[in-house]
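Example 138.
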Amino acid sequence: MSELNRIGVAIDSDLLAKFDALIQDRGYTNRSEAFRDLIRDELVQKIWEKPDQQVVGTVTLVYDHHVRMLSEKLTGIQHDFHHNILSTLHVHLDHDNCLEVLIVKGKAADVQKVADALISTKGVKHGRLTLTTTGADL
Ligand code: NI
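Predicted structure in complex with nickel (II) ion:
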């Protein structure tokens, strides 16, 4: 970690009160750590805007495995992008529904492509790509 700097932030009291309430709800014990996390989150978002940047993320999918050919289609897509998928977790939620979480890695553009292909597949009830960082630049 680099040298610690102290900065002053001018903020109106209404906004500060809302911020304090928010971070208290989220379990922060001080404003500094909350500010740092907000900044890091913005930096991670910025990294994902560069198509060639190395990124890590997770794709979450919920689908009914009874939908005709759906499991096969999702597996096919995953094989097409096998270089970008590090691991897959599959949980049978109930008789019909499956939850799948994939850990994805690679160039931002490629990872976004895998996520889009999976989430937009007909029959997927809900899908979400969560963007995170390799941690190397934060
Ligand atoms: Ni299942």
